[in-house]
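Final report, section 2: Outcomes. Of the targets proposed, AAA family ATPase is the one most frequently requested by collaborating groups, and we therefore present its record in full.
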Amino acid sequence: MHLKSIKYIKPKNTNKYPFNIPLFKDFDILEFRTPVTIFVGENGTGKSTLIEGIAVGVGSITIGDDSIDYDKSLKAARELSKSLKLIWNIKTKKGFFLRAEDFISYTKRIAEIRNELEEELKEIDNTYDDRSELSKSLAKMPYNNSLYELKKKYGEGLETKSHGESFLELFNSRFVPNGLYILDEPETPLSPMKQLAFISMIKEMVEKNAQFIIATHSPILMAIPEAAIISFDEYPIKEVNYNDLEHVNLTKDFLNNPGQYLRHL
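The predicted structure is given below as tokens.
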């Protein structure tokens, strides 16, 4: 594991967000004892707040249009990161931070870049109409190289695939050994079968010394083998067993007898 633990240093002013949420009243230290740590809990319990603060503290790169240092939606996370002391085994700069909602804007941006490069190639054809083929080829070279790199990474384009397929394609192209991956609800675009494929990718990267911190509502991702599951449903937060999770048991009961729940709605 790369990140060993995080210690919360309570600031002087705890009356403003995010320091005033219940999570931080009894929060002291969180130790990462396995390569995969899962954050679980109801909406509003602080999972995303903490995971964003960790990502800023780590200095993760993001999948999206804005840098983690300038993304307006991470303003509170940047404040929180100042109160988080990160203890490392071996610090790594590899990996990334991903929120599910950032993926859509990222896909659109990749498509825009591809279109811009293709438009530049067309413009060179017009501008260099009376020039030699060699001159034209030299002018096109940087744009063709960029298109080649995009195709090498993402095939014909993330936008040409379904949401779930393109999401997995992104991970497949960006996962590298020895990385620290901080993921907030990565199951959002994934079908149950695609979630199983995603778990397979995670297991493969763990074997290559990658570490994952994942916030999720998916009982499938919660079942990642040997993952440490941290529950945010009670404070202070604590590690729990998969079969003791209310989320898991509610899902099991619903699937066994949906009518029992639906008739009360």
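DSSP finds nine helices and nine strands in the chain.
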